[in-house]
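1st attempt posting a full record on here, be nice pls
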Amino acid sequence: MGDQVRVLVTGPAEGAIEAVLPRRNRLERPAVANVDQAVIVCSAREPVSSLLTVDRMAVEAVHENLAVLLCLNKIDLLEPGEAERVLEPYRTAGFRTCSTSATAGRGLDQLRRELAGVVSVFAGESGVGKSSLLNALRPGLSLRTGELGAWRRGRHTTRHVELLEVEAGGLVADTPGLSLVALPPLAPSALAGYWPDLAVLAPGCRFRSCLHRDEPDCRVKAAVAAGELDRGRYERYLGLLDEAERTYRRY
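the predicted structure (as tokens):
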């Protein structure tokens, strides 16, 4: 969804596609093209989102030159201060964030401002409330939403990608929930470049080819040890680095 085409008008309300124009960007999952930003929706309760999946999505978005907005939904279910603890590592990394509750109507004004005037794609695991947020942002839309399954994971309710107009004047692609997101085909040495909080530290490493894993005089590892870099984010980077090495050998 999202391809732009050149059309030859052949009559009233009639036309023929002459060409599909080059894509500015393209995401594999969700399958969309020519969008401005990725809104990665997650939740810390019912269900608990996988931050590894969140980080995978962020890597793919940065790889495709998309702006990233991390939206933590269902904050009405959280204890005081819990939303800040989840979002702070991402703010420190340089991502824009917002916290919302589709059911309680909290944080929707900020989300509207973030969506205004751009084409966004909502991405996230099943059950985090993407369709509920869109229903709250555009009353009367009535997108189907679902209950959590017996294992407290979301069920897929959106079956296809659909481009929707929201009150703020932007367009949003609503997408099916995802559970598995593959990394784009990256050389292992390139992965940290799509990890903003590591990329800003990497010039301080002793070796230009540093993978920030076993090398001596690594500025990234020093930042983790000093509490300057979130350890959870760093450990998830190491996991994706191993995956990138396995995947890259296939190409």
